[in-house]
Amino acid sequence: MDWSILQQYGPALLKGFGNTVLCWLLGTVFGMALGLVIALLQRYGSRWLNWIIQVYIEVIRGTPFLVQLFVLYYGGPLIGLRLDALPAGLLGLTIYGSPYFAEIFRSGFRGVPHGQIEAARAIGMSEPAIVRRILLPLGLVSSLPALVNFSIILTKETVILSIITVPELMYQVQRMSTETFRYVEANLVLALFFWALVEAISRVGRRLETHVTKHLIERT
Amino acid sequence: MFSIPVFLESFWPLFWAARYTVLISVLGIALGLVIGTLICAARLSPYRWLHRFAALWVSFLRGVPLLVQLLVFYYALPVIGLDVPALAAAVITVGVCASAYISEIWRGAIAALPKGQAEAAVAIGMTPRDVWARIILPQAFTLSLPALVNELILLVKASSLVSVVGILEITRASQAQAATTFRPLEVYIAAACCYLLLNLCLAALGRYLEHRTAV
């Protein structure tokens, strides 16, 4: 083992790490937004729309992320969708995450007691107001643990972006290892980076959960 | 634009390559079930260092991306003198990674079992081994079946990553196909269809097993 290469490649690694965090953050935020839209459409849309959404969810969940990226990045130009690696990767992450997030939101919405919504209707709230003030606050709280869980899974999916040459941490590490032939050190560094990142996110997530679900714990 | 004949033609090499996808997924989940059960037992054991080891195992393997684990295994094993073929490295990595998830699935299922079951078994004089083999594990298996099928589907998709160590499974075959035909869109969509087909079969199998073992 020879760790001196870390000095030379340190800045590149940190930059890659920054890109990894950026991809994860944007991918999660956009994926969640798209997932929320899908879940709401599923709840309020027509039967046909529901059927289309169901097919979308099954197809995205049933195919590997790597294959989806290939379709998007290498197949996209054939139908006029020409994207750089980073935007293509972000779009891919968003699409990949959206059905999972949609399912999480859907089960969160289903957990909202029906009486609450009926009560809101009875006092004459409009449907958008019910969504905004009853469905979203209650549903989001109960789906938070699952949301955190899936965000962590997405962190690890970001390494796959390196295969379509998004310059994130994995990409930098591979460059470093092919230039120096130090595969073991490079990949161990990578493993430790990710372990630290995931542990940090899951700790923050647990804090957030206990904070948001405080009111759910019965006072005795 | 999208050409149907190219799309249909690219299925054959992909079907042929699918046997490696199936092989890696099946061996991976078998290995994962064995190691996962051991890790779960260690996690639940009263010995502190065993418990700690299992917790570390799960945290590390769940915290590190599979692609990274694969490269660590593939490049690190020869350094310590174990020159394994790519296929073995792939199966070991997939199995070890699955073991962390499976041990957590088991743990959840065992925690959900009524405590009285194990207590009653002890009370009528069953040995600890019998309690595990005849009371806890069979019931936990039934309970955890949906989660296990879910994990298996994830594994099939994760097996696309082993293409980076040079195993000719569906993804690798489709890359080669795309490179020779210059029709990436058709070929990769065909690859996606192959995976979808495999996973729909697995989901059907899961529903069947759930139906069979329902109490």
Give your account of this protein's structure.
The complex is a heterodimer of chains A (220) and B (215). Chain A is mainly alpha-helical and 220 residues long. Helices cover 80% and strands 0% of the residues of chain A. Chain A has 8 helices and no strands. Chain A is flat. Chain B has 215 residues and is an all-alpha fold. Chain B is 83% helix and 0% strand. Chain B has helices at residues 4-9, 11-44, 48-63, 66-79, 86-112, 115-123, 128-158, 170-181, 184-213.
CATH architectural category of chain B: Orthogonal Bundle
Oligomer designation: heterodimer
Tally of DSSP β-strands of chain B: 0
Q: How many whole angstroms does the radius of gyration of chain B measure? A: 20 Å
Output the number of helix runs of chain B.
9
Which H/E pattern describes the elements of chain B?
HHHHHHHHH
Identify the CATH class of chain B: Mainly Alpha
User: Which regions of chain B are unreliable across 5 or more consecutive residues at pLDDT < 50?
Assistant: none
Terminal CA distance of chain A: 57 Å
Q: In sequence order, what are the helices and strands of chain A, one letter per element?
A: HHHHHHHH
Give the topology, please.
The complex is a heterodimer of chains A (220) and B (215).
Chain A: H1 5-44, H2 47-62, H3 65-75, H4 85-110, H5 114-122, H6 127-157, H7 169-180, H8 183-212
Helix pairs in contact in A: 1-4, 1-7, 2-4, 3-4, 4-6, 5-6, 6-8, 7-8
Chain B: H1 4-9, H2 11-44, H3 48-63, H4 66-79, H5 86-112, H6 115-123, H7 128-158, H8 170-181, H9 184-213
Helix pairs in contact in B: 2-3, 2-5, 2-8, 2-9, 3-5, 4-5, 5-7, 6-7, 7-9, 8-9
Organism (chain B): Pseudochelatococcus lubricantis
Pfam families (chain B): BPD_transp_1
Subcellular location (chain B): Cell inner membrane; Cell membrane
